[in-house]
Amino acid sequence: MGETKKYCYGFCLLISVAVNILFSINLYVGGDKRQVISSQSTLTWSEKAAEEAEAVAGIYCSGHGRAYLDGLISQGQPVCECFDCYAGSDCSELSPGCAADADSGDPVFFEPFWMQHAADSAVVISGWHRMSYRYADGTTMSKELENYIRKLHSVVGNAVTEGRYIVFGIGSTQLLNAAVYALSSGNSSSPSNVLASIPFYPMYKAQTVFFNSEDFQFEGDTNSWQSNNQTNTMDVIEFVTSPNNPDGELKKPVLGGKTIYDHAYFWPHFTPIKGPSDRDLMIFTLSKLTGHAGTRFGWAIIKDKDIYDKVLNYISVADLGISKDTQLRVLKLIKVAVEGDGMPLFEFSYNKMKDRWDRLTSVFSKSTRFSIQQRHPLYCNFFNETRLPSPAYAWVKCEREEDHDCSAVLKAGKIIGRNGSLFSADDRYTRLSLIKSQDDFELLMKRLTELVSLEDGSIKMI
């Protein structure tokens, strides 16, 4: 009996020692693993940044302004930055005589969409994020972002990217001149002639003249140039803006030479997508895709390797590449843009633009003094139905003979537009922006209705 107890105590002692050894191993060896798991599920350095961002985003500005982390500060706290025509500490005070500013192409109408997708589109950047000029592969462009841009065009069906090169730029603005540089002859004794069809985006002329290169010069309107130059031997670079800024038309080349396709507005919310653009050099911009104009990001899709190398060299010399912080944010935004095959973003933006055009058309249909561009329905492969275009801008014409300066007529009615002459067109035309905030659009509708109602006094507020 004593021997049995002795063996029992010994066995229990052995089991106890074994359990303690296993516990100790788990404590000192497995502890690191538990710590890693814990750190993965608990915010550490990013928590403060997230709290700051949400605190500022939550500041009440009555829906007519916003507070920002990098914005105005009063008594150590961020304060509201009010939208046009609003004032006060919470932006609740509307100036009754304020003019409707429809001048700029600031695409703020997307803002409600991104507020609805706050978690998916937010970016927290560590203090040590991408401090190098280059990525690990030695380039200055994110390969993952390039892949998502290709995916985006595949989803939307608006551009061929297979077998093409992609270059990033600071908005499409930088890429426009980079493209002119790349396509120019490089012969100072016979510079390339840069042209566009009236009405055209003013930056084509402004940039070409500003950079004052010996290799290219701005020569104005394609149709006028063609009628005065019968020879086909002259070196020509043509800007084709499709859809066009300011009138929204789907443009085609006039001269058939070296061409830069500016597709800033070639998205389903502005125009039906008939099929993918298959051009040698196409330029797109984030600002008119998602509304993030301030992020300053664009991209060119290029067929020819030599032209690609020249555009890439231009960007490298000018900026040593695009901000890595910008590229990270753009990647996040485009990931959201392609969710659900793009339907959430493009249905939101299209419905917003359609509603604005429906209301705008209703007002102008009651006017004999003012008219806007004609729109023609087209089949959209993205939405799989026939739809009217809903351009970013209304191209307004003053029909009365005495109204030779349409911008001045609208300004007298407290509406600020952009003169037709800025687009090298007649000043009987004025461009009105339809892509600003809802506050801006509502005020524009109010002022337009007031102005048109003066014609017969029968129009009610829309």
From TrEMBL:
<keyword id="KW-0808">Transferase</keyword>
<dbReference type="Pfam" id="PF04863">
    <property type="entry name" value="EGF_alliinase"/>
</dbReference>
<feature type="domain" description="Alliinase C-terminal">
    <location>
        <begin position="100"/>
        <end position="452"/>
    </location>
</feature>
<keyword id="KW-0032">Aminotransferase</keyword>
<dbReference type="InterPro" id="IPR015422">
    <property type="entry name" value="PyrdxlP-dep_Trfase_small"/>
</dbReference>
<comment type="similarity">
    <text>Belongs to the alliinase family.</text>
</comment>
<keyword id="KW-0472">Membrane</keyword>
<dbReference type="GO" id="GO:0008483">
    <property type="term" value="F:transaminase activity"/>
</dbReference>
<dbReference type="InterPro" id="IPR037029">
    <property type="entry name" value="Alliinase_N_sf"/>
</dbReference>
<keyword id="KW-0663">Pyridoxal phosphate</keyword>
<dbReference type="InterPro" id="IPR015424">
    <property type="entry name" value="PyrdxlP-dep_Trfase"/>
</dbReference>
<dbReference type="InterPro" id="IPR050478">
    <property type="entry name" value="Ethylene_sulfur-biosynth"/>
</dbReference>
<protein>
    <recommendedName>
        <fullName>Alliinase C-terminal domain-containing protein</fullName>
    </recommendedName>
</protein>
<dbReference type="InterPro" id="IPR006947">
    <property type="entry name" value="EGF_alliinase"/>
</dbReference>
<dbReference type="GO" id="GO:0016846">
    <property type="term" value="F:carbon-sulfur lyase activity"/>
</dbReference>
<dbReference type="GO" id="GO:0006520">
    <property type="term" value="P:amino acid metabolic process"/>
</dbReference>
<dbReference type="Pfam" id="PF04864">
    <property type="entry name" value="Alliinase_C"/>
</dbReference>
<keyword id="KW-1133">Transmembrane helix</keyword>
<dbReference type="InterPro" id="IPR015421">
    <property type="entry name" value="PyrdxlP-dep_Trfase_major"/>
</dbReference>
<keyword id="KW-0812">Transmembrane</keyword>
<feature type="transmembrane region" description="Helical">
    <location>
        <begin position="7"/>
        <end position="29"/>
    </location>
</feature>
<feature type="domain" description="Alliinase EGF-like">
    <location>
        <begin position="44"/>
        <end position="98"/>
    </location>
</feature>
<dbReference type="InterPro" id="IPR006948">
    <property type="entry name" value="Alliinase_C"/>
</dbReference>
